[in-house]
Amino acid sequence: MVRRFGRVALLSETAFAAFQALRLRAKHGSDIQIERTEPFNEFETLDEEVRVAAAAYEDRETPSLPYAAFAARNDHPEPDELRDREL
Amino acid sequence: MRGQQNSVPGSEGAHPNGRHQAEAAGGPVVVQTPDRRLSGRALDLREWTGTDVDAEGLVAAVRRNQGDSDEAPADEGAVSDPKEAKAEAEVEEAAVEHPVAVACPDPGPAHEYVGLVEPGMALRVRTALAAGARSRGLSAPQDEDLASVRTELADLTVPEADAAAARERLAGTESAVTAGRERVATIRGRIQAARDRGRETDDLREELRAAARKLSEIETEHAAAREALEQAERRAREARDARERRRRLEDRAANLARAARSHLVDALREEYVTALAAVPGSDRTGDPGGEEPFDADPVSAALAVGRVAQLRAPVVLAVDRFASADAAADWLDAPVVRV
User: How is chain A split into domains, by residue range?
Assistant: First the structure.
């Protein structure tokens, strides 16, 4: 196991890890969800404006300001627009 | 019970610590301002009107002694002239920067909690009593483990890890490799077509060589960028592991410290309860079992801890519980500065 997050675990990409995951599924059936994840590279997958918006919003001066208002004020992409964009 | 685990010899004294007066008195305390000076074991500064001397300033001056004076001499008579001269030089030096300077033995572990007794003070009684136990040389069974956990914590380094630069380097190199391969295949196709039609292929071959060179460069960069990202992610994983380990060690250290404190408090609980019942001017009755002793008013609790603890640096006293500074010094078995 590479890491645990509460009830989620990240396993290394080996057949043994798959074997362990399948044991769990055999025991608990569809309660066990197995997904194969892929490393995320924001420089590959995203437009620069989304990276810039995320960094700027986390650096905002008023912590209680919602993102929608922040985006409108500072010319970042709107949350709804982001929701419609596929990666 | 008395003097249990306490290395200080001689338990025939009237004080619960069982120490001789002369020994507890340590070196004389010297309080000095630019134009005044008092020395002795029990000092009363209340007549020093018009000076900047306040309780906080005095305690700060006492605590500035930390680490810069030697162990307290066994009795007053043992103070040798050079040492006294040194202490006086220190006092004068300190007086330049601060309105008041105090020469006295090192404040021990309990002084931090009960070195200043004033109205309205707050006191974490158990923590103070545990420090009082330390001041008498008592130890807890958890000390060794606690020290080793703290050493481990101090030695633990969490590596700096940021894989963003590596991700940025890798980005786009994969599609560049694909594009390069397609370009090589396209040129090969054109060479084949030219050959089929019996045409000249030299220019196309030159183009193919250039494309193949370019592809090889891109592939090399892609492989290097991938390798760099894998390394960066390994470091990030190590950093996460180290942080997790640090959190576990911090938890363990906190648990050990709590257990050690509780052990030390238990060791002195009875003495503390007895001392608390004897605190002058307390509104508590003489029944030590009647109330939760750790909920006593902070001034009484501080005085009781002070009586139980071994204090060599003076206690700065700003409350009216004793008839005189001398009476307070006798009761606490510690040097006292009354303000």
Answer: 1-37, 42-84
